Amino acid sequence: MNGLTLDIFLLAMMTAAAVWTVMRGSLLRAVIALALTSIALTAVMFRLKAPIAAVFELSVCAGLITVVFMSTIALTKPLTHKETLDYTKTRMKRFWLLPVIMALLGSALLYFTIPMDFNLAAPLETAKNFRNILWEERQFDLIGQILVILAGIFGVVVLFKERSKDEPQD
Amino acid sequence: MTQETAQLLRLYIVFLPLIFVAGFYCVITTRNLIRTLLGLEILTKAVTLMLALAGYLTGRTAMSQALIITLIVIEVVVIAVAAGVVLNIFRHNNSLDARNIRSLKG
Amino acid sequence: MSKELIMMLTIFVPVAGSAAVPFIGAVSARARNVVSLLLVAASVIGSFIMLPEVLSGKVITVSKTLPLGFNLVFVSDMLAVFMALVSSVIGSIIVYYSWGYIKPYRNQNEYYFMVVLFIGSMMGIVFSANLIMLFIFWEITALTSWRLIGFFREKDYVLKADKSFLVTVFGALMMLLGFVMIYGQAGSFDLAVIKQTFASSPVPNIAVILILLGILSKSATLPLHTWLPDAGVAPSPVTALLHAAVLVKIGVYVYARLFVSTINIADVWYTAVPVIAGASALVSAGAALVDTNLKRIIAYSTVSQIGFIFLGLSIGNETGIAGGLLYILMHGLAKGGLFLCAGIVEQKTHEKDITKLGGLAYTMPLTAVSFMVCSFSVMGIPPFGGFFAKYFVITGAVTAQQFWIASTFVAGAFLTIIYLLRVFALTFLGEPKGRAPKEGSFVMVSSVVALSVLSLAGGVYINYLTGPMQLTVQQMLGLLNPVRGTQTQVMSTNNDKQYVLYASNKIKGIPSRHSGTISNGVK
Amino acid sequence: MSWTLVVVPIIAVILLNLPFGEGYRKLAFPAGIFLAVLQSALVLLPIENMFPYGACPLSPFVFLSPDALGLLMILSVGIVVFSALLVGWRMTDKTSRKSDFANLIILAMAGMNGVILSGDLFSLYVFLEIVAVSSFILIAMDKNREALEGSFKYIMLSAVATILILSSISVFLMLTGSTSFSAAAAALKQGNHAAVLASGLFIIGLLIKGGIAPFHGWLPDAYTSAPAGVSIFLAGIVTKTTGIYTIIKLVSYVTGYTGPVKEILLFFGAVSALLGAFAALDQKNFKRMLAYSSISQMGYVIMGLGAGNPLGVMGAAFHLFNHAIFKTQLFVNSAAVEQETGTLNMDRLGGLSDKMPVTGATSVVALLSTAGVPPLSGFWSKLLVIVALWVAGYKIYALIAVFAGVVTLAYLLSMQRRVFFGNISASFSNIKEAGVSFTLPAVLLSTITIAAGVFFPYVFEKLIIPVQALLGLL
Amino acid sequence: MNGLLQFFIITPSLLAAAAFLSPKRIKGLREGIALVATGLNLYFALAYFGRDIYATVPWGGGLGLDFSLRLYGFSSFIIASAAAFSFLITLYSSVFMYKKEHPGQFYLYLILSVAMINGAVLADNLVVLLFFWEGLLVTLFGMIFIGHKGAYKTAMKALIIAGITDLCMMLGIALTYYLAGTLTISKIHLPMSFGASVAFIFIMIGAISKAGSMPFHSWIPDAAVDAPLPFMAFLPGSLEKLIGIYFLTRISLDMFQLSAGSWVSTVMMIVGAVTIILAVMMALVQKDFKKLLSYHAISQVGYMILGIGTAVPVGIVGGIFHMLNNAIYKSCLFLTGGAVEHRAGTTDLRKLGGLGKVMPVTFASFIVAALAISGVPPFNGFFSKELVYDGALERHWIFYFAAVAGSFFTAASFLKLGHSAFGGKISEEFKKIKEAPFAMLVPMVVIASACIVFGLYNSFPIDKLIAPVLGEHAQSHVFSGFPHNIMLVAITLVVLAGAVLNHIYGVKKTGKGLGAVDHIHHAPVLSTLYDKSGQADPYDIGMKLTGILAAGLWYIDRGIDWLYNGFSVYSAYAIAFVSKNIRGASYSAFIIWSLIGAAAVLAMMFGKS
Hints:
The structure holds 5 protein chains of 5 kinds.
Chain A: H1 2-23, H2 27-47, H3 51-75, H4 81-95, H5 97-113, H6 130-137, H7 139-160
Chain B: H1 3-29, H2 33-58, H3 61-93
Helix pairs in contact in B: 1-2, 2-3
Chain E: H1 2-21, H2 29-47, E1 53-57, E2 67-71, H3 73-96, H4 103-122, H5 126-145, H6 152-180, H7 194-211, H8 219-226, H9 229-255, H10 263-284, H11 289-309, H12 313-344, H13 355-358, H14 360-374, H15 380-395, H16 397-421, H17 438-456, H18 459-470, H19 486-510, H20 518-521, H21 524-533, H22 538-581, H23 587-608
Antiparallel strand pairs in E: 1-2
Helix pairs in contact in E: 1-2, 1-4, 2-3, 2-4, 3-4, 3-9, 3-12, 3-17, 4-5, 4-9, 5-6, 6-7, 6-8, 7-9, 8-11, 9-11, 9-12, 10-11, 10-16, 11-12, 11-15, 11-16, 12-14, 12-15, 12-17, 12-18, 14-16, 14-17, 15-16, 15-17, 16-19
């Protein structure tokens, strides 16, 4: 039974972290809240017996993406403290609606899903090991990943390059 | 469909839409460009969760993990490019306000 | 050479040849002029060769089946060869005329390319017996007429060309829907197959309305006619080619080909179309009387005369249809002449407004006489061809018991006489305002005189025309080889035999306009 | 065949970017041209046996040998990339930016080939993303204000689409345990509600990527703000392959015409046909008008697909190919106009056909083909769509298709009138015809349009009828 | 067959072309050819006189159109008289037209008109008749046109009036074809049903407009001033009346059995009576020699129409005989007018005076013709008018009264004309002028003598030529000889005496010939009528109405045009504006639109199942 309560706890943790990223006033704290959500996600993934994916998620999402965000925030002029303060005040006016919607939706879903029954496909007995799936069946995706990475490199090169002086000032 | 997995699925059906709503809400209402990217990031997390759940429910965890890894790789690149674009937009109008990228009308 | 090959040549020599014209033009203008005339002359010769063959009642067909009922079928019968002759002869005169007219203007290559392609696609329409081929050539004529009307590149001229292109394409697309509707029931676009499927039951009225929209837009009849006067901005050989001789005849030909000789339509149409034609004849005649721009007036007069042709073809009895066909020939010749004269006047005086013209007859006698001859033929004054055409059309209407329609058309004829005389008087007679110019160049004047002489010959030697005309009509109505059980149309040639006018099953819809035999007082 | 289409470009890109100095990087352009020509040759000329399907030294890839429609798409990818590279190479100024442009185009081409060849839902998603990412970067390359805004909008919409597609894949995975088309089709056949929801989500995702009516927000801004070469590439083939082709693939392999798919396709096709046509009528910018025109023409394809009979699918496929040809050509003409006059504001342009005869003439050919005037190819595809709609009984939609045709002709004529006819303004009196890198693709594309139109019976039998086989799977 | 066709139609046309093309240098060649042509025509007319020839050539090959010609008693009589007149007038015009411009064109039109008239009279197929009938339009237009530079307005007016009425005739012929089933005139015998009477009315319009009766008359006075004078003597004076009344008789007798009681004959009689009165009243006040004569030409037509309209044998014979007589004296009067113009240079009565002394022969033939037209006993006019009076009285006295009043005014106006032109003092410059040249005098004298001959020996024309036309209608009655109804003769004589008294009274009152009728002109009621008569020209009214109709139609046309240029363009751009901006501009708007679209798709998906 405690497994289920653990799931509930972790899922609640993840949703709370998500809401917190949205509601947080200052940008930096919002990024940190995002990292928190990804950590909660990793925990849930462990529970769902997807360890490799969880570790990958933790290292890439929590790590790399937070770094990317931090650097963009650094490169862009951060709001002064005073601006963040009055900014948070105005935020509340715009963002109070979110928790309300979520509460409503949650209760509605709770109410409707109880009677539903699910017919899912029969589970596959022979659990293939992860490695050969990735390499045999998903080779086409691997090629895709190479392509994406190449595209990403070009993207970074093109976009992040500091505009050199001779470039026309558009 | 064992009783226990059904129970778990019902749990996810409650929580997943919440995360989706949070993500979409953040993307639509926020005025700060970086915060929209955060919203996107939340949505991606929700989808990764769905894939993991699918893998778990059908016992094909290995397949779902492979998918998740490819997904994460692609998402990183997308976010990196998006961040680059946001950076350049900032260089132009010196502010991250979403209102100044509404110029193309008609 | 086999007749089939000749038919294909008549169509595809101008169509394919037109592509070469701009390239020859790049080399030398004279060569291009001559080549374009030769290309059009090819279709003239082709139709002439086919004439005897077709007059003996034989029908030449060429067909290549394609999946889904899109098969290519070309048929040449009397109606087709007649129309081919009319448009290619007038077309070649106009090409010859434009040697003189187009010389001072730019992008002549495009002009000749489009004119030859236009006449070629006209041949295509006339010979094709498959709705889709018909539609393709129909649209090519719309495309070429767009480029030709927009020949002068000023913005408002091009605007008018666009307007006319849009109206014609709108009509054409509606017609396409009508064709598709027929395709839905008949299963194929081939006219022969369609003829069988609709032999007994008439075509649904919605299909008829849609196709009529297309025909009305192309032949510029009332609701969709305003593009024709606006297209007066085109160079005058183009307006002659478009308005008078060929373009507007396409709509009328398709009406004849579809509704008269292939599918039979509900009876209501035998009164509805003449009513529309009547309204169009009157409105445009009134407008012609008020307008002051020379070419717009002649264009309005074309719209009005097209109403007459429609009356003839749509009235449903033999005299009417023969009158309609004759009208097409006579109107083509006469109106072509009028436009070419207008071209000479415009080129010499650079003035379009007739109130500012005057007294040209004394310095341009030949053009004035040809203009007068052609306008007399359009008015229907005897020694010229127009008289017989107008007579047959009116008699057709009367024998179809449509007295009110006949009288509206006679009223239209009144207005025709008045506005044509007004134009003639204002431009050619009275005091010359300013320096009256000399006669046009030889090429232009000779073509105009040729057209007026043809109109006169059309009137005097009418007997060579009425014979074949009647055979064409009988072939159209499917009476030539008597179908069992239907009384053939007996039209005596000597006048003491009994008259039996009995409509074939084709037009059984209408109580045959005149089926009583003449009992009383036959001496 | 598939091996060459996806893996070879990767190797090419890697080799091109080895650190051998500036001169070496200039090689990217010829490599791109070679790959594009190779690709079109593969489809047209019988040299497949040199590159057998599927056989690949690495290992049995999960490739689908391209069906008839796939072949058609690969051909149009080749042609469009060829012209986009030619124009783009000429238009971008700095050499370093030129090579980035060429490399990204090669990557996107590989991605598109992957989309055409992918045989399973998730790999479809992966390659969609590849094409999307490279087009984000391509749009934003100039780093001017509009380009960045257009790119950002495209990123946001594309991300939303990806999320919908991924959620639908996960639901399919949940139901069938595998991401292959056949498994998904089986689930859908049982009429399982969750499967219907999943197919709905996937279709919505693809509609967003394809720029169909209510989801088309990003398209005009992305096309207009992108640099000339990129907008040719985008309008010519990217939206088609990632959006419209994938819908056809989804409908033919997965959903079939079960349930309300027909009504959805017809409704949204009609809405975008009309909305696109009317919006294009009142435009001042040449490229923005062409962008809206693409939305409208894609609406035709979707309607053709929605008609539900073999004629409809054939019409849709042929219109897709035709649109790739004549829309690319119109964008090439707009690039030529932009290159010579420096502006795309139609009110200031005018009378260019005297100074730029080739561009003027080819734009007339493309204009007539887009409006569906015979004897050009556009007419045949529109005819097939209209006949299919009518025969399938959707008379109102056929009427809408015809009416949208008329409006299409209206705005294209107004474009021709404002840009190429009329009298030339003083400031442009000294311009001359655009360079060979503009006129060559324009002439090539218009010859294809004319040839496809005039020799329609042969094209019909060789390329279009096999598409009918696609339906066997429905 | 080819005999008829050859001699009467083809040779004149060829000769006409020859006359036109012959070079100007050789003097008199054109006149010679014209004389030869009309002479030949006269010879053949006399040679074929009275013969009954019928011939047809399959002309139309079908559609009921075959070129059939028929020569029988009545038509040979018409052709003979037409040939005689045309020969004399050609002789006359050879001198008159000598110095005028375009003589070539004049002779072309003259001989062509002869050919056309022969064709019209000979035709036995209604379409062939219409072909030649309307062919005259061209020559009418041509002849008036070459009058002088400004004459084209009258030419246009004549062409429009004649054209419109001929179109009505075409409609009438189509109706007859529909009712009778055949176009051959000899075959058509229709009872006077409603349809037939409508057809009759339409054809009658054509016939009476050619003859120049009231509603369609207004071009004749203008032509008198503008057209060359021989034309006035040739067409409106004689030939047009001949074929107009000839065809009117054919339709009322052969084709449509016009019965006495029917409303159609009353209509014809009313038209005839009105034409007589109004035309002669207008003639009364004219100040120009030729205009006065032209108005009289119109009023005389009234007598013919009234005669035939009575549908009574005596009336019909009277009408036809009057047609012949009128042709004779009217052309003679015009020729005298021409002689005066040729010598004195003007036809304005105010300037003329006392010419009788210097131009005795012209004066003499003028007197004979004037007495004939006024219906003075020994001359031909008297006999035909008596027959018309007899027929009119038989139907209703009002018509008889109109006829008699007409002749009163005719006599008064000719007394005025004679007195002012030939009587009175001769002014200085006219003293020197000599008599008209010999070639002009011969036709005048011949025609004047014909007036006398036809008057005294009227049995030949009536019994031989006209009576057979009536066929079975009038076997019993003999019309020729002295009029049988003495009482009518008495009234006529009284009326003529009244006219003389009125003339003397008028001359005494105003002191000069011209003022003889001023007292009538300025009579209280009549003067207002006269002032308004200027605008009462049916042609002007008709043109005003057409102008209004055209303007109305023009607005319809502009309305439809606005539908394309205005309405559809604005609505298209309005929809365009909406569909352009509905998209919004920011990415969040796009995402919202996408969610809306997604909701719609899902609703469709689940709405179905």
